[in-house]
């Protein structure tokens, strides 16, 4: 069960997230189509050349976490971005008109699991309802038996495109089953929605990559992440970034390996890819981005 201290911390995070939306001015990324760049040399750049890669910030900002109602302590920087301060996807409702969006801006991406196709189940598509938490699925699930290739616990997950590591959860701690259930009950079922801070916990261990044109990809429910990668590191398309798991799920909380899969999100500004479309339209747009020859 949650202690009073844990419940207080979660409540503070939820309230702070709401206030930040209104009072904080996004910094670091002012325009999704005009990205700052970072000059990179070394193993990820061709010999004798420099590679220009879009980047938001070098490291996440320190987060002040209340240790009790009377005192506040400042923790070391963590592997979790402060979204309202960076202009990165917050999970709020997006406003992209997919009929007008130049889809070719996403054609540099590929499937993060080699050979995997688009799921045959509507419930595994972006936009599918998630009644257990009063929310909406924001990504594409790669489950064994539904995406054309086997997907097993511990299988490698690869970067869908070139970019920069914005977040990587080296020190993820799984919720226990009682904590997870109380989180769902207190913050999702009673309030009728999934606060972003809660959804972030339910995604489990994650990697976020920032790509050209301000595109963000998220890789969730991972078992492990690459030890060699840190926030700010450049990656190439096809670099290994982690392994398939079930962290953040009910099975992950119970410590078993059941229902392992990759949850993969593509964000364009404040919209996840296919937001607002029908399942058939979502399959078509994801197929064009990940599977068609460009």
Précis, in short:
With 294 residues, the chain is of the alpha+beta class. It contains 6 helices and 15 strands. It has one domain: Glucose Permease (Domain IIA) (Distorted Sandwich).
Give the N-to-C terminal Cα separation: 51 Å
Number of helices: 6
Percent range for β-strand residues = 15-25%
CATH homologous superfamily classification: Glucose Permease (Domain IIA)
What fold name stands as the CATH topology? Glucose Permease (Domain IIA)
Total number of beta strands: 15
Helix content: 10-25%
Question: Can you tell me the CATH class?
Answer: Mainly Beta
Return the domain count.
Answer: 1
Shape: globular
* Rg of Cα set: 19 Å
Main beta sheet strand tally, sense and closure: 9 strands, antiparallel
Model description:
The chain has 294 residues and is of the alpha+beta class. Helix content is 21%, strand content 21%. Strands 7, 8, 9, 10, 11, 12, 13, 14 and 15 form a nine-stranded antiparallel β-sheet that branches. It has a two-stranded antiparallel sheet with strand order 1-2. A hairpin with a 5-residue loop joins strand 3 (64-66) and strand 4 (72-74). The longest helix has 20 residues, at 4-23. The N and C termini lie far apart (51 Å). The model is unreliable at 18-87 (pLDDT under 50).
């Amino acid at each position: 069960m949650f202690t009073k201290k844990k419940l207080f911390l979660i409540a503070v995070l939820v309230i702070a997230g709401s206030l930040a939306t209104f009072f904080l001015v996004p910094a670091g990324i002012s325009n999704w189509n005009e990205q700052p760049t970072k000059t990179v040399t070394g193993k990820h750049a061709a010999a004798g050349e420099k590679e220009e890669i879009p980047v938001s910030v070098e490291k996440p900002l320190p987060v002040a976490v209340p240790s009790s109602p009377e005192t506040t302590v400042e923790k070391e920087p963590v592997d979790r971005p402060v979204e309202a301060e960076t202009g990165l996807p917050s999970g709020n409702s997006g406003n992209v008109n997919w009929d007008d969006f130049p889809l070719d801006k996403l054609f540099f991406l590929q499937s993060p699991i080699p050979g995997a196709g688009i799921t045959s189940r509507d419930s595994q598509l972006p936009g599918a309802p998630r009644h257990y938490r009063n929310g909406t699925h924001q990504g594409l699930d790669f489950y064994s038996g539904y995406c054309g290739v086997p997907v097993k616990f511990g299988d490698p997950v690869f970067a869908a495109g070139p970019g920069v590591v914005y977040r990587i959860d080296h020190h993820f701690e799984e919720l226990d089953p009682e904590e997870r259930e109380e989180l769902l009950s207190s913050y999702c079922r009673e309030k009728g929605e999934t606060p972003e801070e809660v959804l972030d916990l339910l995604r489990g261990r994650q990697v976020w990559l920032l790509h050209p044109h301000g595109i963000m990809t998220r890789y969730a429910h991972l078992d492990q992440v690459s030890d060699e990668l840190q926030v700010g590191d450049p990656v190439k398309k096809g670099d290994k970034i982690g392994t398939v798991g079930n962290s953040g799920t009910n099975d992950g909380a119970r410590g078993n390996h059941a229902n392992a899969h990759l949850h993969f999100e593509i964000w364009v500004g404040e919209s996840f890819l296919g937001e607002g479309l029908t399942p058939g339209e979502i399959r078509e747009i994801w197929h064009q981005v990940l599977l068609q020859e460009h």
